[in-house]
Design goal:
single chain; 148 residues; 3 helices; 7 strands; 29% strand; elongated
Length: 148
Amino acid sequence: MRVCIGALLVLCGLTAACRTIETKRPIYRSEPVRTAPPTRMFEVQDERGPQGFVVLFEATASPQEALYVVRNLHQQDLGVIDALGRAFRYQPHEEKPTWVGSGSILRGVHRILKTRSQPIMQEVSLPESPARSLFTAEKSAPTQSQRN
């Protein structure tokens, strides 16, 4: 009898210590990865000042595949807006971005950056070096009329 109770306790102890681990494998697709160069860059401002940047990536062969990437002041991607005006915001620790609305590019930028008022987008020049294009924005030099 004691042997049965001891064996039962050992069996219960072993099953209570079991752990389940779930792993996910990436899904590999046969279609090639499409890339597009950055073609335009905008600085986004509201009443508080600069809030971020919008970079337009546009394939030369297909303008329908244009993608606006919304970044904060540290050049971290916060979301994307597709050519149809659908805005998606990246969420920390989530695999897929969250849809925040549809409409104009400006409205999507407003929702992704969570600006207080309707933002203003001012075009800035893209950096010359491709390595710097992901990290910096160069403002154009002021003209003679802006200096005076």
